[in-house]
Amino acid sequence: MKAFVFTLAAVLTVSSLFAQRVDEKELQPLSAFKNFPQGAVYQNTSLSPEARARDVLKHLTFEEKLSLTGGYKSFCFPGVARLGLRPAIMADASQGIRLQTIASKANSTSFPPMLALAATWNPALAQAFGKNIGEECKAHGVDFLLGPGINLQRLSVGGRNYEYMGEDPLLTSVIAVNYINGLQSQGVIATAKHFIANDQEFVRHIASSDLDERTLREIYLKPWEAVVKQARVRAIMTGNNAINGIPASMHQPLLNDVMRREFGFTGVTMTDWQNTNYHPDLQYLVARSGQTLLMANNATFAKYIQDFVARYPARKAEVEADLDFMVYPNLYTLFEAGVYDRAPTDKALLNTLPAHKETARQCAEEAICLLKNETNVLPVQRSKKVLLMGENELHSGTGSGFVAGYDHTSFAEGLKKTYGQNFEEAEKPTDAQIKNANVVLFRLNKKAGEGYDVPFEEPQGVNAEIARVAALNPNVVVLISSANGLPMPWLGQVKGVLWTFFLGQERGNALANIISGKVSPSGRLPFTLEKDFQDSPDPDFNFLGGKPYWQGNNNHYKEYWKGNEKNSRKEIAKYVKPHQLVHLPYDEGVFMGYRWFDKQQKEVLFPFGYGLSYTSFTYTNPKISKATLSGQDSVQVQFTLKNTGKQAAAEVVQLYVSDKEASVDRPVRELKDFQKVYLKPGQSQTVSFWVNRQDLSFWDTPTHSWKAEPGAFELSVGSSSRALRFTQVFTLEK
Ligand code: BGC
Fold this sequence. Notes:
The chain has 734 residues and is of the alpha/beta class. 26% of the residues lie in helices and 20% in strands. It has three domains: 24-349, Glycoside hydrolase, family 3, N-terminal domain (TIM Barrel, Alpha-Beta Barrel), CATH 3.20.20.300; 353-530, Glycoside hydrolase family 3 C-terminal domain (Rossmann fold), CATH 3.40.50; 615-732, Immunoglobulins (Immunoglobulin-like), CATH 2.60.40.
């Protein structure tokens, strides 16, 4: 697909706006207020959030209602001082708190980003992680966390992939639900973002993700349905993109009809920063779309409403009803989360921070994926000489997902603590230093972040450098700090590869525990690593005017596109009119991630779900509870998992379902469940999975409903999407 077009305004990275300070005096709970209007009952905490929100609506003026549809001071929901309602404070997200967005200067933990969290495949850890961040939000006076990011990784080059949870809707759903449950257990409002199919940074404010109904239902809507139904997420943020030509921020069919009416979402829907301002001619779509809050302000919408009422004064009541429709979910959510009844900051919770370091370290440890370990080059005994080379590793991506953290332990510091005199660090070591080491750890970094996608190419010069080092030392282990794909022509020349994502502030302690063997790796890839970007579903997705597009303000990114400098904003402006959309057809349909590579029978570098361990596991005694399934019954598959190696370790067992006789083209197999099982050496455990009719269904577009067709199905249990340990078959009856 060769796309064209562009607008200048669209490249502004609005999250660079910093928060303006909200006065402490503005942040009092309702209990501190005295001058309630006559007859008001919203201060009564024994009433339901619905009743309290309805009562506030009765006391608001038209202008006040209009103000409650837009943001305040860049990162707040406005208060109404006359009624004692305080503003609510927001902060980015998702791997902790981005301090630039709030006034607090105290420490906040940089946990690993969402992609690393997903790589742990550990729902309980995701819940603890969310709860920890919830505690930090309260310690810092944050009412809304602007996360987690739950978009799916459509392409390995997505600039914000590090903020999301990989390519599979089920894995994303499970991790997101647990994170949100943990976060919201603290009364903090989670904001799942960015609704929906906002999967690339390429022309991000004007891209239209064009996809069919079945693909939306089976793939893209799945995590949203899960966070609404299973976690009662209190807020969502709409994407900068359009879906099938309608901007996400005013997409009534999806926001109102699907999310609210069908899934039961009752919370705040906020735009991405300044998004509705990008569509000045479409303001009439906003009010009834299910959108409730225009961030960072509602300037364009407010002007549209004021002009409309000035022109048609007789229709003011009708407009006010529209404003009620927008404002009510905001008020309801703030009452329901207890925001109006408390002050935002609980400084006592700063004492939870030391414990959060433990969670951050555990998550980093469980995320690291061991991709290659020839001749057991890892773990490395403490008596061996270890050389760490290459540029400092990255702990976070850039943009609004960046979380600075404090008290970092770098890779070098963590390894130094473990290997003492036997450890050496040199960014560019001499040949002698390389030869002298027993093991060389080679840092390979790929920057990523908001506002730009990350080309598949290796960072400049890396391939040649690895080949040079591997020729000098037989025991090279490459540490890849990246959330994006890359070629690995050097794979045959190195002994080991660890995918280290970005791992937050505890990364060095986690890495040292893995390298030294204190902990066995248990991370599994939440995405497919393709051999070549040409194998991906949409290799030409970022072409504008026939040339690959780069966003000209990022030096690192420019390096990749040497020779294409002419493709600058000015040149792009030749192809587009302001606010014109760039259409990105999702022609791969439901064949997302591994579904695509399996269907195409493409070899990959490393498949989805892949990761090695320092121990070994057997899968024996597979059983299925019945040969036929009917009605609303479930079928159970069971087996014995045993740790047959010498080290305690966790295995991630993955259940894949294949429909063998379908009237539509279905994926070869799809992940339907998983468990992370921790076993001591010699220990075994029975593992069971249940599968029901819904797990076997596809979206039947003609009837707009789920359909499970009778016939043969396979249930396979694997240690990755391409390492199936056994398969059981059964027949679904009518
Ligand atoms: C980003 C959002 C972020 C917001 C506020 C936007 O540019 O896309 O993810 O929450 O800024 O910083």
